[in-house]
Design goal:
With about 425 residues, the protein is an alpha+beta fold. The protein has helices at about 15-30, 45-55, 60-65, 80-90, 135-150, 170-185, 190-195, 210-215, 230-245, 290, 305-310, 330-345, 360-370, 380-385, 405-415, and strands at about 35, 45, 65-70, 75, 100-110, 120-130, 160-165, 250, 260-270, 280-285, 300-305, 325-330, 350-355, 375-380, 390-395, 400-405. α1 runs antiparallel to α5 (about 135-150) and α5 (about 135-150) packs parallel to α9. The chain binds adenosine-5'-triphosphate (ATP) and magnesium ion.
């Protein structure tokens, strides 16, 4: 038997309403904030990711699915969404468009990791990228979108942590100070951190290994190397968050696993997730567009993991669904008329179903129950002759007779007006 690849999951029909609910909620919130959906390819030139995410990051060092195309060029399945979005932004010269360039995306990402709960090899992210605005209100806007949408999903135990990574110059000033300190405690660091002392020392602040944490407790703080401009930007970010009532915590060790961030970095964690407790993260990345060959365009964004949201989404969250109608048709005439009626209901926008395998009333009603139908239409040869059908409310079991030609409009008004349809754009 052929099975799915390790770390890759099927989403069965029972689970998809929850997923659709999460995705639609995220999209609705993003559209409300003026972000518009972009869909970029799932695979790109390897160089794109190596150059943007950073050569000494976990992702590029060991997590990418990279393979040779038939002509020998190196391709990679996208491990995240920012690189491709930035490439598209540059390629389509969107910097020349005077409108705000605020994009959102959703889709699968691929990383070769050790699979466990909330950590997969094919997983899904929803993310946003806001291009062109250096104003700290753009940072506040994306953090507020992230916070509002996660809160709207009623996720429990959320914390927003933020940190100031400063400008490139600030980090350049901090790096030798940190490296000097790390050399002094080198023997206490994990192999990964030892290897990165020179190449990517900031990552060590983020290391989860307890010994590394202890050894670096008294490490010099990045905050002490920050320029007045970086401090000012961050103060306006925190003031903005306070002004609109978004709670946050300062976390001076938050550095993020991707190299392109500057100034504001943030992460939302959930106390109910165990080891994989990060729900989403993001920050400002003012240098990335230029680094990838575009103009000097400031940008800020975030991405959330949909598997982790799905794990935390309370069971009690009511997923809106349109009640269904089941058509139970018997006899020769009844079966023909029932099949036509089924088609008419569907064309009128009423979700309707019939099990063509069922023959008896009992079998039909059992299926109607299993399918969660709100109403069943009973239609046999006798009913056809009289031009009426019986409508059975599956919850109350009450039955009433209806002229067949009035059925569709009656069900349309009963079912389609009472359902709150989530508005799209
Ligand atoms: P972690 O520290 O958990 O590895 P990360 O810093 O690598 O996370 P990001 O690259 O910032 O994660 O991605 C944003 C979000 O995407 C994460 O907060 C998480 O919810 C989700 N995510 C990342 N990697 C995976 C994965 N392998 N499986 C499922 N979700 C993931
Ligand atoms: Mg990771």
């Amino acid at each position: 038997m052929i099975k799915a690849i390790k770390g890759v999951k099927d989403l069965l029909p029972e689970e998809s309403p929850r997923w659709r609910f999460i995705e639609e909620t995220a999209r609705r919130w993003a559209l409300r904030y003026g972000f518009q959906e972009i869909r970029v390819p799932i695979f790109e030139t390897t160089t794109l990711f190596a150059r943007s995410i950073g050569a000494t990051t976990d992702i590029v060092e060991k997590e990418m699915y990279t393979f040779a195309d038939r002509d020998g060029s190196s391709l990679t399945l996208r491990p995240e969404g920012t690189a491709g979005t930035v490439r598209a932004f540059i390629e389509h010269n969107r910097a020349a468009d005077p409108r705000p360039q605020k994009y959102c995306y959703a889709g699968p990402m691929f990383r070769h990791e050790r699979p466990q709960a909330g950590r997969l090899r094919q997983f899904h992210q929803f993310g946003v990228e806001s291009f062109g605005v250096a104003d700290p209100r753009a940072d506040v806007e994306v953090m507020s979108l992230l916070w509002r949408l996660l809160s709207d999903l009623s996720l429990p135990g959320l914390t927003l942590e933020i940190n100031n990574l400063g400008y490139t110059d600030d980090r350049a000033r901090y790096k030798p100070v940190l490296v000097a300190f790390l050399k002094g405690v080198e023997q206490h660091l994990c192999a990964n951190c030892q290897r990165r002392i020179e190449a990517n020392p900031l990552r060590m602040l983020d290391c989860k290994v307890p010994d590394c944490r202890t050894a670096t407790e008294d490490a010099p703080r990045l905050a002490d190397s920050l320029s007045p401009a970086a401090r000012d930007h961050f103060e306006r970010v925190t003031a903005g968050l306070q002004a609109i009532g978004i709670p946050f915590h300062m976390n001076p060790r938050l550095v993020r696993g991707l190299d392109y961030y500057c100034l504001t970095a943030f992460e939302v964690t959930c106390s109910h997730l165990g080891a994989q407790n990060a729900v989403g993260a993001g920050g400002r990345y003012d240098g990335l567009v230029e680094q990838l060959g575009g103009a000097a365009v400031p940008a800020v964004g975030f991405a959330v993991g949909l598997e982790r949201i799905a794990l935390m989404l309370p069971e009690a969250v009511v997923i809106p669904s349109t009640p269904r109608v089941y058509v139970a048709a018997f006899g020769t005439k009844g079966a023909d008329a029932g099949f036509s009626l089924l088609d008419e209901l569907r064309r009128a926008g009423v979700p309707a179903d019939m099990d063509f395998r069922s023959a008896s009333l009992k079998a039909h009603l059992r299926q109607a129950d299993r399918l969660g139908a709100l109403y069943t239409i009973l239609l046999g040869d006798d009913e056809i002759d009289k031009g009426i059908a019986t409508l059975r409310n599956m919850q109350t079991k009450a039955q009433e007779d209806f002229p067949i030609r009035e059925l569709v409009s009656s069900l349309q008004s009963r079912l389609l007006t009472s359902v709150s349809t989530p508005f799209s754009s």
